[in-house]
Amino acid sequence: MAARRVSYFFSRSLSLPTSPASLAKKYGLSGKGMQRYTTATVLEEPVITPPVQVNYTKLLINGQFVDSASGRTFPTLDPRTGEVIAHVAEGDAEDVNRAVSAARKAFDEGPWPKMTAYERSRILLRFADLVEKHMQELAQLETWDNGKPYEQALTAELPLFVRLFHYYAGWADKIHGLTVPADGPHHVQVLHEPIGVAGQIIPWNFPLLMYAWKVGPALACGNTIVLKSAEQTPLTALYVSKLFHEAGLPDGVLNVVSGYGPTAGAALASHMDIDKLAFTGSTDTGKVVLELAAKSNLKPVTLELGGKSPFIVCEDADIDRAVEIAHFALFFNQGQCCCAGSRTFVHERIYDEFVEKAKARAAKRTVGDPFKKGIEQGPQIDSDQFEKVLRYIRSGIDGNAKLECGGERVGSKGFFIQPTVFSNVQDNMLIAQEEIFGPVQSILKFKEIDEVIKRANATRYGLAAGVFTKNIDTANTLSRGLRAGTVWVNCYDVFDAAIPFGGYKMSGVGREKGIYSLNNYLQVKAVVSS
Amino acid sequence: MNGNMEKAWMRIPDIKFTKLFINGEFVDAISGKTFENIDPRTEEVIANVSEGDKEDVDLAVKAARQAFDHGPWPRLPGCERRRIMLKFADLIDENVDELAALDTVDAANLYSLGKAMQIHHGAELIRYYAGAADKIHGTTLKMSSELQGYTLVEPIGVVGHIVPWNFPTQMFVMKVGPALAAGCTMVVKPAEQTPLSALYYAHLAKQAGVPDGVINVVTGYGSTAGAAISSHMDIDMVSFTGSTETGHRIMQAAATSNLKAVSLELGGKSPFIVFDDADVDRVAPLALLGCFFNQGQICVAGTRTFVQEGIHDKFVDRLLEEVKRWVVGDPFDPNVNQGPQVDKKQYKKILSYIEHGKREGATLLAGGKPLPGKGYYIEPTIFTDVTDDMTIAKEEIFGPVMSIMKFKTVEEVIKRANGTKYGLAAGIMTNDLNIANTVARSLRAGAIWINCYFAFDNDLPIGGYKMSGFGKDMGIQALHKYLQIKSVATPIFNSPWL
């Protein structure tokens, strides 16, 4: 096995442009004359090649980049073109075994859980500082692998990634158990201990942010980790994990296995030496993960799954603002958000005006090469998702929802889809029931608050909800009545580190972010003495 | 012991900041007055520092008030305050040499210890509170009718910090750190004996990006500047560390002015209890350190050493061996354990307590005299056969004077240890689980150290019972004293649950 030290791989010889604008300029693509999706020619232009090298493509096990045991690799594709960016080592059960045994050793013997919490917090802080220094490269890799707008990755997601690690660094030395009153002459104290080796499976829609949600709390609590990134987006997890080792993380504490769900993912979920599993992805896969945990060693499982989140616009709402936020709630990140506001319920009195404005807004949405300045929407992640979204659009049309705009692919290569708006959507239509995970907005009409609560709750999901109203009673009634893990009132997609996130019903189990996320990674031990 | 006074480490560091720090600028006192800053090693003047008075406090409060009522600091999200505080901590780490030297010439804190640990610990505490800045949680409430209720946890406002001279760095960060994280603005009055590092910290905070007016430092005397803070009508809270006598005055001033919230960390006469089963080789050095560290100038010093009769003589013999190895001298000398007392007043007070001890019939086991020559040096002094009614067993000496008292039973020592107006800290030396648990629960003191002493930690709150004060420093509890709670309730309709 060609095992070398992580630091050996750190070689950077790039001159980076300082902003998306200068990047575009460098490649002769100025922001003016920006093309709309309706003119498909935009994608016939040559794609921008980001000035970043792909240096890390192997598995990261016990502090070293290594080939997979089988020697196999898989291609990670550029969703703008479907072309190969790099071949990445493909981990499967054998590699997971090796990673778990490194993580096990690092937990059972290694320095990490025995370090002072303050030292752990310093390593997290140093890591965040290193990420801050490499934000541009990371944002470029993220966009290249995922297709999200570069400006979004650079100016929103990377800074949030840094804040998340600062946040969790601050928790490391503030994990408090309780001393507890006893009924008799007993002294009772409760110790919060790290749970052990955590297996973490993250999705492709926000590769870095999902990494932060998982890795941050697990490390702050003193655990060790085997992380499986999504096969669509393996690149940034490897890069930042290398930075983590540079920041002083001991070997074996954080292992990254790239690979597929049915092989590497299943091996993690069913592993007998993993103490805790955290998964973010689809509800169908979540069921499999939970089942594997049940059949193996009963490891506790955190699941953050799908959604069909209602976005409720009441008659007293500021319509223009509601239109803009509803648009953002659905189309952000190509509609590939688990909490996307994908059922837009609008009060009948403002329905027509809302639909007109929502349609106009969607028609204005700029679709194109995500490296180009001013682009709001890039391609869907891969051909499977692309085909699936188009099938849902077809089903909407066939089901007699009114197609207000969009509905087609954009261009002839890559996985670009027009921002699509349906009105007159009924609760029983497929597009109102299933998670599309694409740029398809479904607008439904409602009359009464009680009615909309009932209809909004009539789903197997319960991840998030948006409420637009100026009335305090309406806001309170909806906030309490909706069975969802997050309710955003007059806002949407607010993702502070401190705000807990997670689902009701089949949207998942447990909460990520905030103080609540720590519970996932701690054991509770009561010590009672007489 | 004191023969090395002419060595190279007698150096005095460059003193860059000697003026008041108000609204982000170093300024002279309005009166133009200054006071002498004296090196306790030589009794010589090393700097003249601006002497703030009521008018200067007024200006500082005005700046802090403006910064709180209209400035960005309390309105920044916690994550932004955290970022600035992390930068502040990094700057402290970068300036360790100078900061440690200032505390050594000012307070006679050991230079090598300051450089290797204490200043970094200051930075660590700032980082601890930086991490807390975005973790200030209110609660949503379980109401008994159709109401939505919740609490908002808000910064208390303008805080006055009056800090002592024994550990200038620790005291500064201990007060300023949590108040900054909470989103407060503040006026800090360092002790007149040790004004230098506080001014330096204010400068670093500004460099880190703490907005003007958030931290103001008014150097000066307690009876003028300190009194102006505690009686100020526009200060929302005063946090004081110092003597119990001054604590009385501060609370009175708060009561007769605007009823500002008060937090007091005052004196102590902490018991250090050695049970028969203790390991003498481990405990004797700990008892020595627990009493003589920082020249005995530490509020939690273990000054009443209760030793169970079965181990008493063995303990005393071992202690005597230890104290012979305890080196008194220039605190810049890396081999020195104990420097001079902070000033002439303290020095004389301690010597008079030693005379009390002798006169009242305690047996002088070691020390008892000042060192010859310049500087406020006193020998580490140990009395045995001390009884509870002697002055040295009752009053806080704040010097290198240990009083050893013999006891028989657990019940007896609990009673005697609690027989004091103070209740700051206590040490329990035993391997017996039941004794440890019983005594830890029975002692009326704010910090109990079992088989250790001075186990300070960022996360460990410190503060007194009884006349040792109220309100905690360090830990999350300290953050909460700079916060206040607002309850919000509003009717709700048709909630599916209550």
Automatic annotation (TrEMBL), chain A:
The keyword S-adenosyl-L-methionine appears for this protein: no
InterPro entries given in the database record: Ald_DH/histidinol_DH (IPR016161), Ald_DH_C (IPR016163), Ald_DH_CS_CYS (IPR016160), Ald_DH_CS_GLU (IPR029510), Ald_DH_N (IPR016162), Aldehyde_DH_dom (IPR015590)
Keyword entries, A-Z: NAD, Oxidoreductase
Active site location: 304
Gene Ontology CC, one term: mitochondrion
Cited Pfam families: Aldedh
CDD domains, per the entry: ALDH_F2BC
GO molecular function: aldehyde dehydrogenase (NAD+) activity
GO biological process, one term: carboxylic acid metabolic process
All residue ranges annotated as the Aldehyde dehydrogenase domain in the record: 65-527
The family this protein is said to belong to: Belongs to the aldehyde dehydrogenase family.
Protein's recorded name: Aldehyde dehydrogenase family 2 member B4, mitochondrial
TrEMBL record, chain B:
Gene Ontology molecular functions: aldehyde dehydrogenase [NAD(P)+] activity
Residues annotated as domain Aldehyde dehydrogenase: 27-488
Superkingdom per UniProt: Eukaryota
Active site residues of this protein: 265
Keyword vocabulary terms for this entry: NAD, Oxidoreductase
Subunit structure, as described in the record: Homotetramer.
Entries under PANTHER family matching the protein: ALDEHYDE DEHYDROGENASE-RELATED
Family: Belongs to the aldehyde dehydrogenase family.
Name of this protein: Aldehyde dehydrogenase 1
